[in-house]
Amino acid sequence: MKKSLSELAIFGGTPAFSETLHIGRPNIGNRQHLFDRINSILDTRWLTNYGPFVEEFEQQIAENLGAKHCIAMCNGTIALEIAIRAAGLSGEVIVPSFTFIATAHSLQWQEITPVFCDIDAETFTIDPSKIEALITPRTTGIIGVHLWGRPCDIDGLTDIAVKNNLTLLFDASHAFECSYHGKMIGNFGTAEVFSFHATKFLNSFEGGAVVTNDDELAKKIRLMKNFGFAGYDNVIYIGTNGKMTEICAAMGLTSLESVNDFIAVNRFNYYKYKEQFKGIKGVDLLTYDESEKLNFQYITLLIDETVSRITRDELCQILKAENILARRYFYPGCHRMEPYRSYFPHAGLLLPQTEKLVDQVLSLPTGTSVKEADVDKICDLIRFIIAHGPAIRKKMHNKRQGNTILACSQTLT
Q1: Does any domain span residue 274?
Q2: Residue 287: which pLDDT band, with cuts at 50, 70 and 90?
Q3: How far apart are CA 139 and CA 136, in angstroms?
């Protein structure tokens, strides 16, 4: 517990953690089971090209979600790109700017224009009430993004898609093992795309999947992710290489075995953070609808600097010095990144809620690598920082000024 400003690492004190705490440090699962699977792969020498582990992984994912088809891929971005192409999207597609850049890039990479829609002020997911004003004759679809394990307004998006004859896809990278009105994510829209990247609570080292209940779409996606092969030496469709390897599937299966354990740890950490942050002014923990199935994957704070008296970025900087790598999801918003900020320099005028949120969000470490004592230490530290916000800001300002003067003097000499 820090007792004075000088003890903060940013002012020369000893960091609270000797080793860095990361957002999304990988969950491992049962190592022996993983090694057994890897040895089996090496023994059979079946390393890729839809081996038995990939097939089993797809079957288990589909069964877990109650969906008809799961097509495993080398990563979530390729899965999204192939789903977009297979669904026939073109022209313009409406997406939130408040998402990981891959959502927008998956469209732009295929010369489809992402049209950025603002988010709802309460859910922070794409706002259905703002979509119809963005529809043009070139609009072919909508991509909703489930955020931090909290589904977007699927019913509202579905109504708009049906009314306007648009294809509806979902980026479900954050929402594996989550439900919407009691139905598992993976069963909505034309298709939903998951990420099993190492930072996700269920990982396959690197990987992703398209999940759908559309038989024809699933058939097309299977062709497209394997160069269009429909059997030996028989290419019937244009495609690419999106295949998941056997070793990635082995890790995915190992993760699936422990998924309930991972969720239990996430849930415990969430409740611990929730209890600790009660009464800390200007710091609000994003909560979950616990009537649904949840993965509790993210611990997300909203920092109101008018109350906390310290900015989100200042708090992030202080925590980094303490070896806590908190993250500013999804700063600064896709519309502020290239090439979109050059294509749409004034997009922010139509995205007031997005513009506000990107300066408030801060996500904290959780998962199996984070212990109860770690959560206590992180919360104690944030409590101390908020309690001494004005004094810390002043000291940081003076430090920056001193560094500037020193740099100038060194340049002159």
Answers
A1: yes
A2: very high
A3: 5
* Whether 76 contacts 195, CB under 8 Å: yes
Same domain, 46 and 170: yes
* 26 found inside a domain: no
> 267: domain range?
5-21+259-412
The verdict on 215 and 299 lying in the same domain is no
Please report whether residue 96 resides in a domain.
yes
Sole residue written with tokens 């519309």: 335
The answer, yes or no, to whether residue 404 has pLDDT greater than 80, is no
- pLDDT tens across 357-372, in order? 999 999 999 999 999 9
Total number of domains constituting the chain: 2
**In this model, does residue 410 exceed pLDDT 60?**
no
* ∠ CA 246-247-253, rounded to 5°: 85
β pairing state of 183-184 and 191-195: unpaired
Residue (of 322, 321, 269, 334) closest to 300 by Cα position: 269
The reply to whether omega before 332 is within 30° of 0 (cis) is yes
CATH number at residue 392: 3.90.1150.10
pLDDT band at 411 (very low <50, low <70, confident <90, very high): low
- Enumerate helices (H) and strands (E) in the chain, giving the number of each: 14, 12
pLDDT at 82: 98
118 — pLDDT class (breaks 50, 70, 90): very high
What is the rounded CA–CA span in Å between residue 145 and residue 152? Answer: 6
Structural domain ending residue among the three candidates 213, 234, 257 = 257
Residues 200-231 pLDDT 10s = 999 999 999 999 999 999 999 999 999 999 98
Q: What is the CATH number of the domain that holds 60?
A: 3.40.640.10
Q: What is the mean pLDDT of the chain?
A: 95
Residues 251 and 264 in one domain: no
Q: What CA–CA distance (Å, rounded) separates 246 from 265?
A: 28
Q: State CA 200 to chain mean position distance.
A: 8
Claim to verify: residue 79 and residue 37 sit in the same structural domain: yes
Instruction: Assess whether 246 and 315 both reside in one domain.
Output: no
> How far apart, in whole angstroms, are the C-alpha atoms of residue 110 and residue 354?
25
Cα–Cα distance list, 178 to 101, 171, 182, 285, 304 (Å): 22, 13, 9, 19, 28
Do 188 and 228 sit in the same domain of this protein?
A: yes
pLDDT at 1: 81
pTM of the shown model? 0.94
**Of 306, 299, 316, nearest to 375 (Cα)?**
299
Q: Same structural domain for residues 192 and 90? A: yes
Helices (H), 238-311: 246-257, 259-276, 305-308
